[in-house]
Amino acid sequence: MSVRRCLQQAFSRNGFFQAHAVHIFIPGEPESGGRYLRGREMTKSLMEYFNRSPRIGTIGTAARDGRVDVAVMGSPRMIDEKTVVLGSGSNRTLENLRQNPNAVYMIMEPGKGLMDWKGVRVYLRMKDLATSGPALDEYRRQIASAVGEAAAGMIHALVTFEITEVRPIVDMGQGWEQAI
After folding, report:
1. Is residue 100 left, alpha or beta, with left meaning phi > 0 and alpha meaning psi from -120 to 50?
2. Torsions phi, psi for 150 (to 5 deg)
3. Which of 10, 21, 90, 146 is the most exposed place for a label (fewest CB within 10 A)?
4. Do residues 177 and 166 make contact, with C-beta atoms less than 8 angstroms apart?
5. E strand or H helix at 102
6. pLDDT, one tens digit for every residue, the chain (180 residues)
7. Distance between CA atoms of 180 and 176, rounded to whole angstroms?
8. Treating both helix axes as pointing N-terminal to C-terminal, what angle do 134-147 and 3-10 enclose, rounded to 10 degrees?
9. CATH, range 3-172
10. Structural domain boundaries in the chain
11. In this structure, are residues 63 and 94 in contact, taking their beta carbons and an 8 Å threshold?
């Protein structure tokens, strides 16, 4: 499915996504060295959590020389079981991604104690960066419709990422499914 079509689905009036069959590899499980998560329910629950509104998260990036940056972002959308899109201004996050394609998007929900916190860390690798074209135009149209022309005017690029790993915000070996 094209990024443009996925964006149209992502910003549909009901705010929900069509669930797709999924096979996401999560590395690092103790006995097997990794495991595959399967099924529409997993995809649906992660996508609904990731795309919930309102929600704010942070994106961490690093420049080629190792300088790190973290920025508050509300615009990333999970458009299918393995893809995240992000509208970015002309800023440090975008500059870092041009030098180093790896990033992590973190969503946090405070709890009473540390073990009660909810959230995930979604590890990403940039697949595409568009500063023009139909996908960026569609993204800007959807942003303008959702939050106004001023916000859409600040979008300089549309970044498409592949999800490489999902971990809970507080990782005690329980898996991300228990963290949302």
Report:
1. beta
2. -60, -45
3. 21
4. no
5. strand 102-109
6. 555 554 444 444 333 332 233 333 334 443 444 444 444 455 778 898 888 877 789 999 999 999 999 999 887 899 998 999 999 999 999 999 999 999 999 998 888 887 788 889 999 999 999 999 999 999 999 989 988 999 999 999 999 999 999 988 877 777 777 777
7. 7
8. 10
9. 2.30.110.10
10. 3-172
11. no
Q: d(Cα 110, Cα 128) in Å, to the nearest integer? A: 33
Structure-block tokens of residue 169: 């915000």
Question: What burial class does residue 112 get, using C-beta atoms within 10 Å of its C-beta: 0-12 exposed, 13-18 middle, 19+ buried?
Answer: exposed
Tokens for 67, please give them: 């300088």
* Residue pointed to by tokens 């060295």: 33
Q: Which pLDDT belongs to residue 22? A: 31
The predicted pLDDT at position 42 comes to 56
Residue with tokens 């190792």: 66
Model pTM above 0.90: no
Cα three-residue angle 107-108-111, rounded to 5 degrees: 160
